[in-house]
Specification:
Layout (H helix, E strand, L loop, with lengths): L1 H32 L6 H18 L4 H24 L7 H23 L14 E4 L2 E4 H23 L1 H11 L1 H6 L4 H27 L12 H8 L4 H21 L1 H4 L3 H16 L14
Antiparallel strand pairs: 1-2
Helix pairs in contact: 1-5, 1-6, 1-8, 1-9, 1-10, 2-3, 2-4, 2-8, 3-8, 5-6, 5-8, 5-10, 6-8, 9-10, 9-12, 10-12
Length: 295
């Protein structure tokens, strides 16, 4: 029992770091544009497929494939913002949400058309052997994926906190009118947020693909990021650092101790149960901002 608990805690902590990275992409867009991007999973999937194609079909080295993936992600994010989201600025919130569902559908169709649905194995990026610490066995791949995810979240936070571009995005998030009056290019800030979100999604997909392969349902893992976003706070980058591991631990503890009793599936739904509790008890999340409106 003790060994199972420790193993679930460690594995959930590491997996939660990857969930936090995927959640970061959603936070980046919402933080700047106030749009809740429901197409994050498909951006994750199609970016991962492009990387896989560069490595396995064209036999390019990993470093060059990653550069291609980053460039593709930037183009994808900026095109989505420029030609789909920008014309919708000022429209009701529900319209913005529906347009991201449209992006979701288009990207899913493109993914199915070019790559189909069967599982494809991603070339190994990290060592595949496990690390044995007494009774605890840690997957080297999961550990490396968690470290990479953690570093990317930290880099994104530092970018927002200390760079000119990050400051422009933060100012735009506060008030677009005031930001424009101060000479900030609001449209460029919007485009930058979508580009960064697409990059983060692609890297999240690559990390997931290295652990379990690439398949049609890989995009569904982005839905696990939504409870992370809500627990951490819609606009908080540090929030995903905390909420991701919490959700990962909840999921793995449920899978370890409740799935054998129920026949399976409990671990997968626990993050959403936590999300519902958070929405009732603390809608702003752990690190979110509470908004007070005067009428």
């Amino acid at each position: 029992m003790f060994a199972d608990t420790i193993t679930a805690l460690v594995s959930g902590l590491l997996a939660g770091c990857v969930y936090g990275l995927i959640a970061l992409g959603i936070v980046l867009i919402y933080k700047t544009t106030k749009v809740f991007n429901l197409a994050q999973g498909e951006m994750l999937l199609i970016g991962t497929w492009v990387t896989w194609t560069a490595i396995t079909v064209t036999n390019l080295p990993l470093w060059l494939s990653l550069i291609i993936a980053v460039v593709f992600s930037i183009v994808l994010g900026m095109l989505a913002e420029r030609f789909i989201l920008r014309p919708m600025l000022g429209q009701p919130l529900m319209s913005m949400i529906m347009i991201t569902i449209g992006i979701f559908s288009v990207l899913r169709g493109i993914s199915l058309y070019f790559w189909g649905g069967p599982l494809q194995y991603f070339p190994p990026i990290f060592p595949v052997q496990d690390i044995q610490l007494g009774f605890l066995s840690i997957s080297t791949q999961l550990l490396a994926a968690a470290v990479v995810a953690l570093l990317l979240v930290i880099v994104s936070y530092l970018y927002f906190k200390f760079t000119r571009g990050g400051l422009a995005m933060r100012a735009t998030a506060e008030d677009t009118v005031i930001a424009q009056s101060l000479g900030i290019n609001v449209k460029a800030a919007f485009a930058r947020s979508w580009a960064m979100s697409a990059i983060v999604a692609t890297f999240g997909g690559i990390l997931l693909g290295s652990l379990m392969g690439i398949f049609f349902g890989l995009s569904d893992f982005a839905f696990k990021a939504f409870p992370v976003v809500m627990l951490g706070g819609f606009e908080s980058i540090p929030g995903v650092l905390v909420a991701g591991p919490i959700m990962g631990i909840c999921e793995y503890l449920g899978a370890t101790f409740l799935d054998p009793i129920s026949g399976g599936g409990i671990g997968d739904i626990i993050p959403y149960v936590v999300m519902l509790i958070v929405l009732v008890v603390r809608p702003s999340g752990l690190f979110g901002y509470k908004t007070i409106e005067r009428v």
